Structure formats: structure tokens, C-alpha cells
Amino acid sequence: MKQNIPLTQLIFLLPDTVEKIKPVKKEVQEKITKKTSITFPNSPNKLVESYSSTTGKIFVGFEEETEWIIRKLTSGPTEINVIFIVGMIGIGKTTLAYKVYNDMSVVGHFDIRAWCTVNQDHNEKK
């Protein structure tokens, strides 16, 4: 929920937030492990900045899915939730996530937002 919290206070809240995310990360990893066709590699050691070719474009489709995800993110309990967007390559998962991420109700609801791209190259033996 959007609040006027000073940056210095947010910095002190970060370790607690990280601790709250750890069990969520573990649960997500366990759920992904059970699905043989979906794996997420560990985060890269350095931040990678990327730009989407969809910036500034008009999106068509996914209206129901977009509204459902936005409702889940902006209403209900304030605890951390994970929403999976899965499907075959090329069906618009990133486009859907981008629509939600840039929706004005989502932008106005959160103090801080971050966009993370996960590399598709992975080695299941690691």
C-alpha cells in the first residue's frame, strides 16, 4: 500500500523484508521443481539492465487476466504474494506482466516497483 515512508526508514525495513521473502522464494522453488518443464535459474551475480521493445506500444488482449492480476496485487491482505504467469513460448507472458506492471492502479499502489528479467538459459544439472 502506498505510504509516505522516508527512504532512510525503508532502508532499515529492507532486512526484515528480505527475511519475509526467503520462505516465499523457497516455496516457489519447491513448486517449480515439481513441474518438469519450468525452471528458474538462480539470480545473476550482477544486475542486468534491459529495455523492452514493447515500451509505448498499445496492447490488445489479456483484459480479463490483466484485471484479475491487478485485483490480486492491489486488494486483499498486505502479505507477500507470488503470482505465476506460465505458458508456452510466445503467447504473451511478458506482455501481460508488462501491462500489469505499468497499469496506473499498480503504479499508484506501491511505493517501489522493480522489473526483473530471468535469463532463459539454464542448466538443470547445476
UniProtKB/TrEMBL annotation:
Pfam families: NB-ARC (PF00931). Residues 63-125 form the NB-ARC domain. It comes from Capsicum baccatum. Gene3D superfamilies: P-loop containing nucleotide triphosphate hydrolases. It comes from the Eukaryota. GO terms for molecular function: ADP binding. This is NB-ARC domain-containing protein. InterPro entries: NB-ARC, P-loop_NTPase. PANTHER family: DISEASE RESISTANCE PROTEIN RGA2-LIKE, TRANSLOCASE OF INNER MITOCHONDRIAL MEMBRANE 13 HOMOLOG. SUPFAM superfamilies: P-loop containing nucleoside triphosphate hydrolases.
